[in-house]
């Protein structure tokens, strides 16, 4: 019988198993949702099984024709959440995209927390990175719930394994924790201070914290004078954001904002960061810039002499105290064809995919490969997105089950799950709290009709006669600049174990030793410390002119009128976005994605617990069941995304929930630069139906 249990013998988190991991096991056992063979869509819209090699022949031929006729830009990839958990698949995808030469790489990162990428591009970064959770003494986390989501460094504050244990350990050390969230989250039980604002006011709250730090002179003057530009510009831009003004807009006690600023000003190793909430709401780019500006004002980065707890194992790196000036990459070529914007950390904004398809430019997107994602559902505004996706010459999905994008795809390639393929800890390498490496060969046999994702990209490249060079790539690297590469034969399929061996070419632990230790290895190395940077000319830009202009506009902005509530985002423990939503544990708890409301709001609106309600925004309406939750402040409704049908029938119980994306827009209330839609703090009205 198939079971799974945690192995804490070597892991830096101790023994721990996440409920999503258990849901994944059930996926293998039950199998009713599992795609066991690839499918081709017939002209009448139905699907017929197709042998995967035949599907690759047809896809390769079609892509080759498109490239010959329209150039490589006609091809795009969308790298979804599951693609991040497919190491060889992700690296082969990068190799394929680089070999083709298309700039059209999209991922969930630009419809998730891309405000952070915008901030990096506009503010620059400290190469030494922020303090890790084990070192921080005062932390402020806005709009993240890591105890449920396991979302941690480098953005939010947590460890991605056993997060509650990490928070408890931080408390035990005396770390002060401040949470800013309209909901008293599961993580908030560790909070010394919980600020429960109306959503969409993080820019004001953090501008006010900056205002107080500068008013009182409690910012880290040494750090700021050494590494930052624009202090006076920032001071002027945050002048209108008095604590009273921010408190009034966010509807929180002004004392809470003062106290947060006081603690941050006193901290030795402060940390300011956020989860997805502020990146989803109004003024998300401005909010994120202000959160990072507060971190910079407090000098919340590792400094020369600080211990580097994890320098990486597969790719060990020294850390330097050094600012890297902003790149403003989005202002440079290559640009999108539908809007005057460009790359953020090497990727184009996903919310522009529909417009990049329908544009009348000869460089428009004609083929899209969706790898481990459900872009049609994830980007919201389904009517707009679907109409665009229908204009594609070719849509291919790589998935383990049928999702909404699969239903529209010309081919659905059935792939392995992580337990059925070789995996190695490239993504966690520098993010584990201590150095750690693990190789996992397939532990469950794969169904006959499925392939690994890397086999798709290699197989299509072979058919297109595009030679691939396999490389160890990670965020912050330009694929072309990586010298060490493994040229792949286009005749003999690579052996996944050999690809993992190649990924260990610079590893502190040789591949054979990693392989011989299935529970992983923690290398014993001499301690490393942050070193003074080789170049001291870089500066963080605290307040570039576009950020100052956004703050000016925000300071004059009036509240949106005509809506009774604001809908905010949340996540569930037993599913990850759309994956495992149909697992028995998730479904037992969530037959639908409930609309959680403050009990007083429900009483006032005459809504009973469990009653069906209709929630309408400027752009659409959804129906679901209301549920009282006293963790929520008044004025907000909290719902999870990726439930229900793409377009609801009006009967949430039959649909298995409602798609909150129907309340969002890809053309209105989108941010500049990254075109991020508003996924939280959505003004809505409610009525019983
Ligand atoms: N179990 C589980 N884990 C997951 C996922 C999952 O679906 N399930 N998804 C994964 C993914 S893709 C991601 S991106 C991460 C996300 O990880 P998190 O960011 O931790 O996700 P959430 O739990 O939704 O937390 C967002 C919080 O922001 C609050 N919020 C909403 N709007 C605002 C606002 O305007 N301001 C402030 N201050 N707060 C606001 C919400 O109340 C919520 O508590 O989680 C990852 N991990
Ligand atoms: N309204 C609203 N919209 C949102 C959000 C929100 O909170 N509110 N959140 C946003 C965020 S943060 C994100 S990250 C996106 C999520 O957007 P996506 O990543 O596009 O959506 P997922 O549902 O996570 O898609 C993952 C797919 O991978 C499949 N899968 C699972 N395991 C494997 C595997 O091993 N291999 C392969 N090939 N496939 C696999 C799953 O079946 C699923 O269909 O949505 C965004 N959209
Ligand atoms: Mo995400």
Walkthrough of the structure:
With 689 residues, this protein is an alpha/beta fold. It folds into 3 domains: 34-104 and 365-515, Rossmann fold; 115-324 and 539-553, Dimethylsulfoxide Reductase, domain 2; 564-688, Barwin-like endoglucanases (Beta Barrel), CATH 2.40.40. The protein has 24 helices and 29 strands. A 7-stranded mixed beta sheet has the order 2-1-16-15-14-3-4. Strands 24-28-25-27-26-29 form a 6-stranded mixed barrel. A 4-stranded parallel beta sheet has the order 8-7-6-10. Helix 4 crosses helix 13 and helix 7 runs parallel beside helix 13. The longest helix has 19 residues, at 52-70. The radius of gyration is 24 Å and the shape is globular. It starts with 18 loop residues before the first helix and ends with a strand. The mean pLDDT is 96. Residues 108, 112 line the site of molybdenum atom.
Helix/strand layout:
Layout: H1 19-30, E1 39-41, E2 47-49, H2 52-70, E3 75-79, H3 87-100, E4 105-107, H4 114-123, E5 125-126, E6 138-142, H5 146-149, H6 163-172, E7 176-180, E8 193-195, H7 202-216, H8 221-227, E9 228-229, H9 231-238, H10 243-250, H11 254-266, E10 270-274, H12 277-280, H13 284-297, E11 307-308, E12 320-321, E13 323-324, H14 353-358, E14 367-371, H15 375-378, H16 382-389, E15 394-399, H17 404-408, E16 411-414, E17 423-424, E18 439-440, H18 453-464, E19 469-471, E20 485-487, H19 496-503, H20 511-516, E21 528-529, E22 531-532, E23 540-541, H21 545-556, E24 565-570, H22 584-589, E25 595-597, H23 599-605, E26 612-616, E27 621-628, E28 636-640, H24 652-655, E29 682-688
Parallel strand pairs: 3-4, 3-14, 6-7, 6-10, 7-8, 9-23, 12-22, 14-15, 15-16, 24-28, 25-27
Antiparallel strand pairs: 1-2, 1-16, 5-13, 11-21, 17-18, 19-20, 24-29, 25-28, 26-27, 26-29
Helix pairs in contact: 2-18, 3-18, 4-13, 7-10, 7-11, 7-13, 9-21
Bound molecules: ligand MGD (2 copies) and molybdenum atom (MO).
